[in-house]
């Protein structure tokens, strides 16, 4: 059994309407698909989105594909329940991933730079088939691969920015040169938001170090 982290990079014409909206809206950073299924051409997912709920809702409220959705706002984004009919780009991706022994490990990260990142676990032959069967308009890069079962944590661009700002301001120095208030001021956000960004980023970074991620 092997595991691999992959990045799919989409040509602009190959993006789904929602992914295209995430890429074009400055109010949306990324979507983390936490779980889902597709039955008879209808996809049902639950996800967490870093960004403004109103900006995302404008992408789906009038879509003919969308059957139902529910948005629950939280401080640093929102949770989403969505049922929609699959377009040709979504069906092509599912066909490429539908290998007998392969499991897609959530979250699936839909990013604003026209990429999608996900972790796969399965037999080497079936993993190799996926690498050769990506849809037209999509290129694939292997970010990491292992001969054992493992998954990779995910850090958003905003969390990375918060960590970099905190380091530059001496937040991680001993003794600490600046506190969370200075980090929040530099990020132009509330102290509670800066604290949450750092906690999420630190958790992903620690998991990566302890799990031996590159």
Largest sheet: 8 strands, antiparallel
Give the percentage of residues in beta strands: 35-45%
- Our measurement of the CA-to-CA distance between the termini, rounded to an integer number of angstroms, reads 20 Å
Shape: globular
Return the average pLDDT rounded to an integer: 85
- Helix count, per DSSP? 7
Task: Describe the structure in your own words.
The chain has 214 residues and is an alpha+beta fold. It is 35% helix and 35% strand. It has seven helices and eight strands, in the order βαββαββαββαβααα. It has helices at 17-24, 53-60, 88-97, 124-132, 157-168, 180-187, 191-210; strands at residues 2-10, 28-39, 42-51, 66-74, 77-85, 103-111, 115-122, 138-146. An eight-stranded antiparallel sheet has the order 4-5-3-2-6-7-1-8. Strand 6 (103-111) and strand 7 (115-122) form a beta hairpin. The longest helix is centred in the last third of the chain and has 20 residues, at 191-210. The radius of gyration is 18 Å and the shape is globular. 25% of the residues are buried.
Quick summary of this structure?
The protein is of the alpha+beta class. It has seven helices and eight strands, in the order E-H-E-E-H-E-E-H-E-E-H-E-H-H-H. Strands 4-5-3-2-6-7-1-8 form an eight-stranded antiparallel β-sheet.
Q: Layout of SSEs?
A:
Blueprint: E1 2-10, H1 17-24, E2 28-39, E3 42-51, H2 53-60, E4 66-74, E5 77-85, H3 88-97, E6 103-111, E7 115-122, H4 124-132, E8 138-146, H5 157-168, H6 180-187, H7 191-210
Antiparallel strand pairs: 1-7, 1-8, 2-3, 2-6, 3-5, 4-5, 6-7
């Amino acid at each position: 059994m092997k595991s691999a982290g992959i990045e799919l990079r989409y040509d602009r014409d190959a993006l789904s309407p929602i992914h295209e909206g995430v890429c074009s809206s400055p109010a949306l950073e990324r979507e983390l698909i936490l779980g889902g299924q597709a039955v008879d051409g209808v996809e049902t997912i639950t996800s967490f989105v870093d960004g403004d709920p109103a900006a995302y809702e404008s992408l789906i409220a009038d879509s003919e594909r969308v059957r139902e959705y529910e948005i629950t706002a939280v401080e640093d984004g929102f949770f989403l329940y969505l049922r929609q009919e699959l377009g040709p780009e979504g069906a092509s991706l599912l066909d490429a991933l539908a290998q007998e022994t392969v499991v897609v490990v959530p979250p699936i990260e839909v990013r604003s730079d026209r990429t999608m990142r996900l972790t796969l676990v399965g037999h080497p032959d079936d993993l190799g088939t996926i690498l050769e069967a990506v849809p037209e308009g999509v290129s694939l890069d292997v970010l990491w691969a292992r001969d054992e079962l493992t998954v990779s944590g995910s850090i958003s661009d905003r969390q990375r920015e918060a960590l970099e700002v905190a380091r530059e301001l001496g937040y991680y120095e001993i003794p600490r040169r600046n506190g969370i208030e200075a980090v929040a001021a530099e990020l132009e956000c509330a102290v509670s938001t800066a604290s949450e960004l750092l906690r999420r980023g630190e958790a992903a970074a620690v998991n990566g170090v302890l799990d031996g991620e590159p």
